[in-house]
Description:
The chain has 469 residues and is of the alpha/beta class. It is 42% helix and 15% strand.
Amino acid sequence: MMTSPPPVDTLAGLRAAGHELRPVKAEVRDNLIARMRSGVPLVPDVLGFEEDVLPALERALLAGHDVILLGERGQAKTRIVRRLVELLDEWAPVIAGCEINCHPYVPTCGHCRDLAASTGEDLPVTWLARDRRFAEKLATPDTSVADLIGDIDPIKVAEGRTLGDERTIHFGLVPRTNRGIVAINELPDLPERIQVALLNVLEERDIQVRGYTLRLPLDLLLVATANPDDYTNRGRIISPLKDRFGAQVRTHYPRTVDDEVAIVRQEATPAPVGVVVRVPRFLDEILVELARGLRANAQVNQRSGVSVRYTIGAHETMVAGAVRRAIRAGEAVAVPRIVDLWAVVPAALGRIEFDTLEEGNELAIVTRQLRQAILDVFREHLAGADLSGLVSRFDEGLVVGTGELVPAATLREATGEVPGLATWARTLGVDPDDPEGAASVLEFVLEGLHLARRLTKDSGDEATAAYGR
């Protein structure tokens, strides 16, 4: 929780309090060092980057570099950028009424120079919270120099000032975030002529507005994000601008299934109030294996990637199916089952770009990948399990039907007592005494046996099915 600003409101009071002027990069570096010594992670809620991405980012900040985060969509680049604001001091002194956050010790703009000359040590000081020292801009083709740097304000000219007076300038986003952090998302989408306007900001620290050069010692940390596809093809960062960034940090999708499962469970929307939801881990593993398989699938456009947001959305869709069944069937607990996974297939069409010559084949691609994911997880956990007791029941003519709205109790009644079910449940981390959880395990085993070609499956669609021999 943010504390109140210091009780200092004049330049004299600021000097008496012993305040020291630090560049923003030194401020970030010092606060990062303090955080590292205390053992607090740089970005606590970003998982899977502890061994590569975050160390590289820490080195860049310790070196005082402007940074480009390069990676496919859905790799937490924007989240990392937004968490950097926590490395700023909680409060920063600025001259009251200044548009560009001039420090009271170094009045820079015309307004502040005049005010300092007339007030001396009584120069009025106000305090700026750290979140107001962070600005984020999504680079779009319609972004103008005026948006980022500034432009002549006709109203100020009409008030009687001349065009040569710097006070006729309406400052843009970058000068207004002086002594803070400027984040530009999707930098390659910024037109090249606009990128040129950033050159002087990063190196010479002056800005040019309609031919008027204004020397401003801007003090800021610039952080940009870029997608590799945009970086090399659709758009590009001009070479002089790339040269002015001190560090490039490459992000990536989660390296392990455990990391992505943890991310999904952390980021997924909580269950509705009043509904108890338990999600067996093996179902999330299936969704993660689906995403990982799509990322390696030759029929999926890998330049655009398969975002972790797809896995998170798939988890939420799966849970929603279980909640719907629990409400309609009157179950006490909503536990997802295999039948709830098929709803995630059409959702892929809006999130994934395909490279296939056959129109309309996209659903089949995702469906095949989902079946493979189910089979992979089944083999990983139950490859050595004794399933003969259940299979023999089907040899005797057993047929088991399931569907989106079939209650767990109905599924269990259709199979009767299943030898080995408690053992399979424990192997999968599910309480065998949980009726909804046991039904989820049972349906997973049935689907695994079908995909392993030991059972048949009749279905008009994937939402309803009948397993038999």
